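TL;DR need structure tokens for one chain.
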Amino acid sequence: MRRLLFLAALTSAAFALVPVAALAASPLDAVNADIAKLTADVQTKHDTVVADAQKLQADATALVGTSDKKAARATIKADAQKLTTDWRSLRQVCLADRAQLRIDIAAARAAGAGDHGRLHLLVRQANLAIRATNLEMRAAVARARAAVLGLRLSFKAAGEQAPVVPLPPATP
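>> reply
TL;DR here they are.
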């Protein structure tokens, strides 16, 4: 329930930023607004995916050596499905933000707004921050993947068929 309220608040905040970006005084202000929105959405994606990955990791670690294999499979599959669904839906939001940023960067360059070096620096700093956030997120997914692998190995050692769990890709 809290997550739904959080996503609703985030969506309303996103719609509040759109008019601000549209009414920006200069193309450089529009780029700054787009960068702020993209950074916020990437942070939301990070927080959601890391929480899902930590839950998957905790469940997989707790279920190693369990005697109820069917319940373990169901739990892991549900956690992995939630992680994948959240990852994909929030990824689409970030890709849309990035596309809008590219449009506004092109408009700022065409308008000759600001110095090219300043625009380049703004975009570069945002990209570095986003990459660092994405690396943290991918590390959490890799830890969850390793925990699921450990669970699968424990099933194999017990002579049971391991669950096949689709996870988000490890590389972009």
